Amino acid sequence: xxxxxxxxxxxxxxxxxxxxxxxxxxxxxxxxxxxxxxxxxxxxxxxxxxxxxxxxxxxxxxxxxxxxxxxxxxxxxxxxxxxxxxxxxxxxxxxxxxxxxxxxxxxxxxxxxxxxxxxxxxxxxxxxxxxxxxxxxxxxxxxxxxxxxxxxxxxxxxxxxxxxxxxxxxxxxxxxxxxxxxxxxxxxxxxxxxxxxxxxxxxxxxxxxxxxxxxxxxxxxxxxxxxxxxxxxxxxxxxxxxxxxxxxxxxxxxxxxxxxxxxxxxxxxxxxxxxxxxxxxxxxxxxxxxxxxxxxxxxxxxxxxxxxxxx
Length: 311
What we know:
- This protein is an alpha/beta fold.
- The chain folds into 2 domains: 6-112 and 225-309, 3-Layer(aba) Sandwich (D-Maltodextrin-Binding Protein, domain 2); 113-224, Glycine betaine-binding periplasmic protein, domain 2 (D-Maltodextrin-Binding Protein, domain 2, 3-Layer(aba) Sandwich).
- Helices cover 46% and strands 17% of the residues.
- The chain has helices at 6-15, 21-27, 39-54, 66-74, 90-99, 120-124, 152-162, 178-187, 203-206, 216-219, 221-224, 234-239, 241-248, 254-265, 271-281, 284-289, 301-309, and strands at residues 30-32, 58-60, 80-86, 102-118, 143-145, 172-174, 194-199, 210-211, 226-233.
- The strands form 2 sheets. Strands 3, 4, 5, 6, 7, 8 and 9 form a 7-stranded mixed sheet that branches. A two-stranded parallel ribbon has the order 1-2.
- It starts with 5 loop residues before the first helix and ends with a helix.
- Residues 15-23 have low confidence and may be disordered.
- It comes from Paracoccus alcaliphilus.
- Residues 1-22 form the signal peptide.
- This is Glycine betaine/proline transport system substrate-binding protein.
């Protein structure tokens, strides 16, 4: 069986839209979804956690690297994942497809992008395309700064280096977490630096970024234009239709995520506190997310969420 599309998952959820909340209460009280350590997913996970808590569920959000997180979903150790970036993570989707136990609940974000970029000093050095990098190797110290080990984007960079594409065969990929990478960019000052950059992310406001053209083969067209998808175990969707319906309707946008991520990264807010504040400021979004969703004990969901965030 192949991974269901968002339409297929919606049909499944529709078929399961029965008064089965008693089963939800006994078997679905804890909802497990992983965090790969990326602030955008931390932000959306924070929103999901606030909503679930207000509905009477208990969110369980372990921090797992991208490869480990996909294995956890495939092996039934987690229930949902809100961070399936496509096309960057297509290989993981292909693996889940072959496994045949995962459904796509919804495309939760459009307008994202993810590719290599340079800081202002790099742009001032004349780098605007992947093909411009090697001529400025010494200025960049021959290093490309990536994110956590095992991330698909890092694998794409390493494959590019090993194939000596764009003359980058003697360059080095520096793997680290998101925050360590951005700290390196901040420390660079007037020195050129090339690194992974993406939107949504407050880095786009804090750093003068030039996204590099020419990386279509490595990251996809339109500067690594991407969509983000929510995946879930089919067995969980069948057993927990109320919680699954929430996730199938939980759709975000780039401006929203930029705000949430800025509050987390720049203001030091707890992700759930940031989410609760944003939801209180934007109560109109709750109705769409909670349409037809109840609390775990069968009460109207939207009213419960709005009451919780106003406290």
